């Protein structure tokens, strides 16, 4: 798992672990990420790779790839990981590197998807799980679910409702991936 912040999506995956999948590690770029505490409580190994500790962005990307490889994951899940990875990382984990985004892509890519949806005045937004490619939120869509925008919504209330849906959708996608892998073996 890759996460930078609160880690509630990470927690949803921790809570959903069953015979079909387990979370093998957390990689974060933020030493203060709440996800770290969640991983520690769950006994999950953690790698902290702070961008400022590396001389170049490429060096950070290489360390990120190595940290992911160390955990030998079948699937790499970016959930609230607020860094764009480079093309080398994308190709190294091609087909098993996914991200969750709080909008119905291709609408509202980028770091302010919830704010942008509100500003655009649309009545519906939602959540997308997609493969990560070399662009920002441009990879192939795996699953989407919509969320209605209420007149009373501000960025926080809307994002919280989207995150409820994101957690369910992400768990479903991970379980589907695990099931397909099991069938293929
Ligand atoms: C999610 O909405 C995710 O899509 C976005 O950041 C949020 C992460 O939430 N990129 P949390 O840190 O897992 O609570």
Q: What's the pLDDT, averaged over the residues?
A: 96
In the sheet with the most strands, the strands line up as 3-4-5-6
Low-confidence stretches: none
Give the helix tally: 6
Report on the structure:
The protein has 6 helices and 6 strands; from the N terminus they run αβαβαβαβαββα. The strands form 2 sheets. It has a 4-stranded mixed sheet with strand order 3-4-5-6. Helix 4 links the parallel strand 3 and strand 4. The longest helix has 30 residues. Bound molecules: 5-O-phosphono-beta-D-ribofuranosylamine. 5-O-phosphono-beta-D-ribofuranosylamine binds next to helix 1, strand 4 and helix 6.
Describe the secondary structure blueprint for this structure.
Blueprint: H1 8-16, E1 26-28, H2 34-42, E2 46-48, H3 57-70, E3 76-79, H4 87-92, E4 97-101, H5 113-120, E5 124-131, E6 141-148, H6 155-184
Helix pairs in contact: 1-2, 1-6
The structure holds 5-O-phosphono-beta-D-ribofuranosylamine.
């Amino acid at each position: 798992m890759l996460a930078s912040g609160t880690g509630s999506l990470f927690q949803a995956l921790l809570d959903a672990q069953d015979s079909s999948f387990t979370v093998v590690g957390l990689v974060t770029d933020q030493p203060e990420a709440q996800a770290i505490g969640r991983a520690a409580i769950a006994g999950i190994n953690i790698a902290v790779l702070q961008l400022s500790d590396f001389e170049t962005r490429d060096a950070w990307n290489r360390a990120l790839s190595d940290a992911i490889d160390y955990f030998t994951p079948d699937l790499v899940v970016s959930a609230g990981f607020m860094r764009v990875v480079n093309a080398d990382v994308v190709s190294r984990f091609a087909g098993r590197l996914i991200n969750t985004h709080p909008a119905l892509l291709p609408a509202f890519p980028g770091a302010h998807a919830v704010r942008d949806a509100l500003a655009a005045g649309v009545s519906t937004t939602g959540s997308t799980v997609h493969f990560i490619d070399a662009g920002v939120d441009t990879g192939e869509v795996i699953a989407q679910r919509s969320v209605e925008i209420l007149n009373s919504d501000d960025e926080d209330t809307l994002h919280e409702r989207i995150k409820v849906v994101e957690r369910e959708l992400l768990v479903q996608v991970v379980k589907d991936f695990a099931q397909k892998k099991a069938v293929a073996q």
